[in-house]
Each structure stands twice: as structure tokens, then as C-alpha cells.
Write a structure and sequence with these properties.
- Four copies of one chain form a homotetramer.
- By secondary structure, chain A is α/β, with parallel strands linked by helices.
- Chain A is built from twelve helices and 15 strands.
- In chain A, helix 4 runs parallel beside helix 5 and helix 8 crosses helix 12.
- The N and C termini of chain A lie far apart (42 Å).
- Chains in contact: A-B, A-C, A-D, B-C, B-D, C-D.
- The interface between A and D is large, with 40 and 40 residues.
């Protein structure tokens, strides 16, 4: 039985804790969250875990692994502690909003040789995974260019905007990671343009709410990331991979099956509400991936280095957005 | 140059006359229509035809063919005249609302050996034709059952209801013809149930506005015809052929390409307005089929006998509807 | 805490037992299944239930309710025992393959006044439920006719065919129930035609594998049920309700979100594999409906009488199929 | 009767000449094309025009208007002649591959005050037009960002690549024009990245076959143009306008209505083959727009200045692509 601790009993911590508890061979031994309250208690009860401090977790030599789903600033220190104590790590993205801290945490992971995976759940979604496999198998022909669109249903609270590192680090990071996952190649230049078109409050907080990023790979292939903080019809997340023989398209997942046909046209159901619904199965499969990493050494779909590279790209995008210039990414580029 | 006369300068006559005039090797020499007016004159002008009487048409030994698109009661007499004078015939369905008259007109065509095709334009529609070919080729596997739905955008004027022979003879005839076209086998029993649910005036005129017909072929395959006089979203004409390896589905043709995505869902454009838009190309291809029949003897997709058999089936459906009983169709069944 | 016993630890029993165990305020106290084995034991363990005999269940005065998901022949006797001992009943359809036995079991339920619901899970599916509500609210206009298609992915084993009461009682019963649910009116006549087109073994076992049923309501509205034992593209279950102002259409639920665009066209994902996937949420909502029935007396969407009437209709359909005649259903009609 | 001359009897000249001939009140008096052959003769015959030289056209004081669909290098001189002789002009895009020549031709048009429209037929397509109207009416909310994709079915012959001015001037010009049409605002900065990923021959000819262009308007709204020389499934031209309350999407127009459902999914028909099919009606409506311009002075949807501005944008895009830098477009920017 693999013994785990889960840090964070918030929205995403609950998902990971429950999926870990349901994973055969996994036992959630500890929940760590400084915020007392019924949510934390209920989670401990459901999963059969004890609520403890971080110290107790790292002092337990029988504990195998930790899941980091606590506040972002705690991620890097927890990764270091896991590296020091030899525990496997599943870390929600980003490792840190500070690129240098991410870099040193990833270096610690590599030096310690601990199993580590990053929480890019979209890589575990069946459709994106099948798309990647179809490209990798050669069936679709070479992937030539890529278009990724992601829109949240509505802008987040301003408090979240201020602490999340901004739209590039919070939202676009998933898309640039997907670009690397599918293109299988590093990025040579980045152009990004952000605007504040939806919510003046977001602009006052120093962030953008709409952005476009053009990525060019070392071999000249192109990817476009288009994000905004509001999808008029709800959560909107789609991707098109234009390959030599096929276009592969991941569409939104519809909320239901009822269609209404009227004189003005056919009304099909809107997309699923938000990422928790859309990626419910991906989160389960991601935790199964963590189990496979720990028990068999099966490489995860998203490594610590993938987290670092995605962050490098969003930092380059921020630089481009701020300077109005293209950022050419020589090897080892850093902000 | 094949010389033609077109009988009827109404809605459908204009289509056939214009398509005939545009057909390479065809010359529309005469238009026959007793109703004077600008529509008739404009049609004559556009097609380069002269307006003459029926007598002149049949007295012209150089005229090769006639297109019958005049009022229904004139069809059978014109077919007889064509048989007597050895002219090729394209006849709009039905040959007659009276089954016995249809039977004798078809017999006259067969006896005279004149080229003759019936105006079941759906057989010339690219989608239905491709479906038929895919079934005939064996690719789809045996066609096991068939579902056909046809709905007009709105009920016709009561004057039309009264003279068109009723909904079975006017509307369902296209679907039962399609059943024969696709199943390639005769029908052994018919059950039909009609209701008046949409328009009380139609009921007062002695007709139904909604109907379902179950056809069973000699080998036990099944087809369902569902018709009503009003598609809430417009002209609605679809077909599903459930085969052993595939389901083949003809969908409505959308009116445009603009989709509107809102919180309540995605609004796709409604179907094309009506049969003249939906089947514009099919009518052109049908006239090309008539040309091929005359010039090369290429068998048309719909023969005089197909017209007779489709009428036999709707007469059986009417009998079933009126008696509330299943009609078993022994060979040669007639109303 | 409501104490329940679940009869049957097979496929459907496991779903109901797990959903009952997850239902707040419900405790699955007993599992009853004569077949020993790991599945039964695992189910008892997961739900925290004890494996007991039927006698122990009915002897326990603290037990409130039973869920009947055992073999069909056991349903009616268990319903009678529940009526005698005053326990609430959730019974999988059908109550009995023998109409008279169903009738007496339903009479016992009514006489005893016990809460009782039937397992027509489709009534609890969000799409069918929303469709029913939209019709009931008047928004869609009067429902004039209805088309229901259901196809299993592949024919069942012959052993199942022989014991399930045949395709009418096993498959069509869901569609005729849906017709009653949506039309909100009783049926006045039934025409049914079945054929054996897919599997000769099914024919040898005395059953059909393809069927069409025409239902006419007392007020003349029409419904068509089309079933077959094999959907070439998988599990195919769709419905169209043609109303005065809208067509409401329940489509298949797609298996995923990846589309492949190639020269021959756009390939969209096939439907979800089978009813367990498609109706996973409906089964959960159905059990929540049972909880609401027991705790608040909220009427269930499917009552014992609904079960009886659906069976009456399939018996009429069987009679029609066997005699080749329309069955007119005077009040109280019975096979 | 408006008397017209059509320059060019090639593919696009034939379309315009035929549409002009079919336009009520229009008479195609002359066809001008130096290339003798059956195509030119047939066009003259169909339209009832005489084949003459350019000199004869401009010497005819009774001629009202010219349609320029000849080779690109002839466009600007013909526009100048039309301005000098006071004839209305319909000019296929681009006016010239040389921006300065375009500028002086447009200046001549403005100075002469002749009616002039540019051949951006997409502006006349019903879907793009309805989209523009829906944005302009305010119904959709402010258009915040725009994504345009255009792909030809297959790379053009290298001879065409070499003479067409390259992919930016030939293909992207339609999309940047559409951006201006929908955004209703000028562009403040352009970033473009082109690659050669599909056809090495195109690269050897000094052109790209894949490109992405980011346009930022003066108020900070964003538009993305994505083009490549090969749509794996055929002619692929789509647009999404993300507005405050709706997403408006122009989809491809399907080639037919037959869908094939198989275990691997549902195969919908591919897009219409190419622009001539897709925009057949738009070309007719465009010519009707020219008629309205001449007879009533109705402003055309695309003016000479629109042609100039679209060329300015593609020149900026080329500059960006060549320098690897963002081009900031101060007022009056020119290459």
C-alpha cells in the first residue's frame, strides 16, 4: 500500500485526495491544510486520512509520496522537502510564480532522483492523449501548425487575478504545455500580445484578459495560443492540430444531449460548465498515472522539466507582451 | 438537337423548362399553358420557345419529347397522346390521382415503347443517389430497415389540399417511392395511420396532416414513412438507412454557415427553405437524366412503372388508414 | 437513516447498490443473492452490507425498503412480500413477464399503500426529463408525434434472448414507457411488425431482432418505436418529439471530443458504448428519486402503474405482431 | 441598360461576365482578352458580347462600366484609363502587387470620382455579411477578438506562386480585409510569421506556405490570421468572432448531406471543393452590388480604399515576417 499525504484541502486538493483514495493500492494517510473548517474535516473523513502538520508528514519514514495542491507559494518549499526526504511528488502547476525558484526546485528533484510529476491534467484527457498518439504514430502526417483556444466562462475574482501570477502564468501555461506535448520540440521564438478588453478591473490590477501568443519551433512549425477570461457560451477549450494528412480537432464536451429545433435554427447544448466537469476523468487518469510512476516507474505524461519549460515559455511571452518585441529563445533563455 | 415541348408554365414547369433549355443538345420549342400572363410569356422568352396549343405540339412530327408539368388531371391524357404520336415523355408525378387511369397510361407507354421517365426528383439528389449506390455496392451491408421523415414548412392552402389527392397521394408518394428505390424489392404489407393534429381546416377538407406508414417487404425488411404538413423549424426531410455495417443518413441541407454560440447553446442554421432550394441541383440532374434517356437510351432512375408502383402503395396506405386494418398486398393488388 | 436491502448482485444490482450506498441518508444493510462469488462479496464490502437470505430481510422490522434487481422471475414474489411487510419497493422492470402476475403484484402494492417505483431509468435522464418538462410547460407547443429509436450495439447471447421475454418485453418496453411519459395520455391502438433480419439464431429462438410499433393515443396523436438488436455504430438511442412550435431531439451522447478531418469528411466520435455509460447519471438520479419518495413522499417519475401500462402496451404489440392485425385497446384491455 | 466591358476571360473573368450578363439591367457589350481560344469565344457567345481591344472599350462613350478580371499587372493601368474616361470600375484584388502603383491608382479613382468597387467577394457572402450586421447592430456585444483560418485544398502550381505576389499578397489579403470589415477600425501593429512546411518547391521559389498574422487594432482588439496552402480535408475557410455576448462562427459549407455512421464514428461530408463553389452566390451578390453602385449610388461593401488598406496590411505583414520584428503602423505607414 502506497502511503500518501495531500497538501491542500481546497477545490483542487479535494479532487486529488478523492481520486488518490479511490486509486487501488493507494492510501491517503494525511491531509495537510492550515485552514480549519468543515471542508477539511469532511475530506479527511471521506478519504480516511488524518489531519496533520507538514512536519509530521516529512518525519514519517513510511510515507511514500506527497500530492501538492496547496497555495502556490508553498509548492517550491514542499518540493525541496520532498527531495530532501526522498518522497515521490505530484505537484500542481506552477512550481513557483518565480522562475528562479522553479528552476532550483526542479534541479533539486533531478539531483535527488525522486519520482515527480506535474499537474498538467489535460495531457491525461483521452482526446488530447489520442491526438498526441495519432500524431506520434505518423498516421496523421507531420503536425505542421497548431491552434489552441481556451476561455473561462467568466472572469475570476480580482483577488485571484492578483495572486495567480497573471493570465499568462495561470491560463496560457496549459496551452503552451500542450504545444510542447504535441509538437515534441522546443520553441525558438515567442510573440505575445495581451489586451484588456473584458474587465477594466483586471486592467487596473495590471493584468490582461485577452491574449494571443505565436510560438515558432526550432524547425519552423507554428502554434497559436488564444486565451480570454470569458467564453460567451461558457467554458470553451478547443484545439486544432493541422497535420499533413488530417486535421485533428478537440471540441468542447457538450453538457447534454437535448437539441431544440426552431425556425431560427438548431440549438445544441452548450459546453460543460468548467474544467472540473470537463476534466473529471482526466484528473482520475492523472492520479492513476502517478500510481504507475510510483509503483512501476512508468514515466508520467508531464515531468518536472515539462513544468519548467512551460514556465520558461510563459515568461518569454510576458517579456514579449511587455516589450512589444519578439523574444528569440536561445538555449537556456531565462527571464 | 432534341426538340421539346413543356406543358405547364407554373412553379414546377418553369424549373423544368429552364433546366431543359440549359441542357446541351436540348431545345425547348414550345410552351403549352392555357393560362395567359406574364409568367408564361417570360418563360417563353427566356427559353426561346413559342406558346402553342397541345394540338400543335402533337402535330409536329419533328418534336421529339414532351415534359408534362401541367395540372394533374391533364397528365394521363397527355401521356396517351405522347404514346400515340411516339414522343418521349417526362411526366411529373402523379400520372393520375385515379389509379386505374395511371394503370392504363403506363400500359400505353409500355405498349408504344416510348422513352418515359417519372418526376421523382429525389432519386436524382446526390445524397440519395450515393446512398443507393453504397447500399447496392454491398459496402454498407444489407439494408435492414429504413426511416423516412418529410415535413413541409407549413400547411398548404386548403384549395391545394382539396385538389392534390390528399396527403398520402401528394406527399407520402415521394417517400414510398424512395423506399422502393433503396430497398430494391416490392412491398408485401402496408399499415398506415393518419391524423389531423395541425390544421382543423385540413380535417374539415377530409384529409390528414400527420401520418405514419409501415411498409414490410416480401423478405421481411421494414420501412417507416413519417410525414406531417409542418416542420416547426422549416422544411425537414431526412432519411436513415440502417444497414448491417453502417447507418446511412441523409440530413437536411443547412441554409447557411453562420453559427451563433450563446450561453443557452450553439445555434446552427435552419434547413433550406423548401424543396425548390433543396433540390435545385437534383432537378437539373433529373433533366440531364431525361436527356441521357432520349439520346443514349440510358435507363432513367424513375420509370413509368415506378410511378405506378408508388401509387399502388399510397392507395394501399389510404385503404389501411380508412379501414384501420393492415393491407396485405398480394401480387397485382389494386384499390 | 433509511435501511435498505438490495436483491441481486449482478450488473444492475451493483449499480443500484452502489448508488444507494452513496445516497445521503441511505444505508445498504443487506445484499441478497443466492449466487456465491467474489462479485457479491466485493459488493457487500464496498457498500458495508451483510449478505443474508430473503427471509432475514423481510423478518427485519427495522428495514425500510428493498431494491429488486434480481432475476426477473423473482420480482413479483418479492413485491408481494414487500407489500405484506410494508416495505418501500424499487423494482427493476419488468415486474413479471406474465402480465397477470404483474397485475396482481401492482394490485398488492396499491392495496398495501407502500411506496413503490419502477426502474425506468430513462425517465430520470436529464435530457428526457428536460424534454418532458419543456412539453409539459407548453413552451414547445403540443406534442403531435414522437419517434423513438433504440439499438443495442450487438445482439445479446441467445441464452438471454430466451429468458428475457423477447425483444418486445425486454427492449421496446422502455420506448413505450417513454411514449406514455411524454404524451401524458393512454394509447388507443397498437400496430407492431417484427422481423428477424440480423441474427438467424434469434429467429430460431422464436424472437425478432428488428421491430416497428405504431402507437395512436386516444386523441389521435402518433408515436413510432423502432428497435433493433444491433446499431452498426454502437449503442444508438434517440428520440424526436415533433411539437407545434419546436422539434425536441435527444441525440446520442458522444464517446469523446476528438474529431478527425480527412478528405472523405469529418469523423465525429461514436456514441457511448452502452446504457451503463450513457445512463450512469440517470441511475444515480433515479436512486435519489427513490430516496425522495421514501423520505418526503415525492412521487417518483415511474410508478408501479406505469410499469403495468408499459407491459400492457408491449403485450398488445406482441399480439399485433403475432396476428398481423391492429390491436384496438379498449379500456382494461389485457392479453 | 448599363453597358459593360469585361477584361479577362479566364476563370474569374468568366464568373463575373456571366453574373453581369444575368444581372437585370446589365448588358455585357465587350469582352477583352488577348488570349484567343474557345473559352473566350464561348464566353462572348453566352453573354452576347463582342470581343474587342481595350482601345475600343475606352473609346466607346456609351460604355458605362468595366469589370477588371485580367492579369494582375494590367489592373492598375486599366483603373487609370477608367478614371480618365469616367467609367465605373469593378476591380479584382489586388489593384497592383506594387503598393505605390495601387496607391496612385486609388488616388486617381478618388480624384475622378468614378464609382469603384474591389473584388473582395467574401464581404458579399451571406454568412460573413450577417455576422458583420449582427456585430454592427450591437446584438452580439463588442467584437473583442477574431480568428480567421483559410486553407486551400492543395498548393498551387509553382508558376502561380511566382507571379501571384506570394502567399501574403495572394491569400492573407482576404483575411486582413475581413478583419477590417468586421472590426471597423484600423490596425496599429502587425506581427507575422511564415514558414515553409508543406512544399519545398514553394520555399525554393522564395515564398512560404504556412503563416500566422497577429493584428492589433488602435483600441487594442486582436485578430489572428492563419493560412496555409493545404487543408488536409479540402477547402477550409472559417472565422470566429468572439464578442461580449456571443461567439459568431462561420463554418465551412458541407459538400452534401449524406452522413455515414460506423463503429469508428460519424462521417460528415467534407467542405465544398473550392472558392468557386463556396462563394458562387457571393459572386452573384457582389455583381448585384456593382449594379446597385452604378444605378443608385449604393456604397459597395468593398471600396478602392479598402483594397489599399488591405494591401498596406499585407505589406506590413511581409515586413514583419522578413525582419522578425513587430511592425507598428503609424498613420500613413507604407512599405
Amino acid at each position: 500500500m502506497v502511503q500518501l499525504a495531500v497538501f491542500g484541502a481546497g477545490r483542487i486538493g479535494q479532487i486529488h485526495a478523492r481520486n488518490a483514495a479511490a486509486q487501488p493500492g493507494f492510501h491517503v494517510k494525511y491531509i495537510v491544510d492550515p485552514v480549519e473548517g468543515p471542508a477539511r474535516d469532511a475530506l479527511a473523513k471521506t478519504t480516511g486520512a488524518r489531519i496533520v502538520s507538514a512536519e509530521e508528514v516529512f518525519a514519517d519514514p513510511k510515507l511514500h509520496a506527497i500530492v501538492i495542491a496547496s497555495s502556490t507559494s508553498s509548492h517550491a518549499p514542499l518540493v525541496h522537502r520532498a527531495a530532501e526526504t526522498g518522497k515521490a511528488v505530484f505537484c500542481e502547476k506552477p512550481v513557483s510564480l518565480d522562475f528562479a525558484l522553479t528552476q532550483s526546485a526542479v534541479a533539486a528533484v533531478v539531483a535527488a532522483g525522486i519520482p515527480c510529476m506535474l499537474g498538467f491534467q489535460r495531457r491525461y484527457d483521452a482526446a488530447f492523449r489520442a491526438l498526441q498518439a495519432r500524431v506520434a504514430s505518423g498516421e496523421a502526417g507531420r503536425l505542421e501548425h497548431l491552434i489552441m483556444q481556451s476561455r473561462d466562462p467568466a472572469p475570476p475574482p480580482i483577488s485571484y487575478v492578483k495572486t495567480s501570477g497573471g493570465m499568462f502564468r495561470d491560463t496560457a501555461i496549459h496551452d503552451v504545455d500542450m504545444a510542447r506535448f504535441l509538437l515534441g520540440e522546443e520553441i525558438a521564438s515567442v510573440y505575445a500580445k495581451g489586451s484588456c478588453l473584458i474587465s477594466p478591473e483586471i486592467g487596473q490590477a495590471g493584468d490582461v484578459d485577452t491574449l494571443m501568443i505565436t510560438l515558432t519551433t526550432e524547425s519552423g512549425r507554428l502554434a497559436q495560443v488564444i486565451n480570454c477570461r470569458r467564453g460567451p457560451m461558457g467554458y470553451d477549450q478547443r484545439l486544432e492540430a493541422v497535420c499533413a494528412r488530417e486535421v485533428l480537432r478537440v471540441e468542447n464536451a457538450p453538457q447534454g444531449t437535448l437539441h431544440v429545433l426552431r425556425p431560427e435554427g438548431t440549438l445544441a447544448p452548450p459546453p460543460m460548465n468548467y474544467f472540473l466537469e470537463r476534466y473529471a476523468q482526466a484528473y482520475r487518469d492523472e492520479m492513476a498515472g502517478f500510481a504507475a510512476l510510483i509503483t512501476d516507474g512508468t514515466p508520467p505524461l508531464a515531468t518536472a522539466r515539462d513544468g519548467l519549460e512551460a514556465q520558461r515559455l510563459v515568461e518569454a511571452a510576458i517579456r514579449s507582451h511587455e516589450t512589444g518585441q519578439v523574444v528569440v529563445m536561445a538555449p537556456g533563455w531565462r527571464p
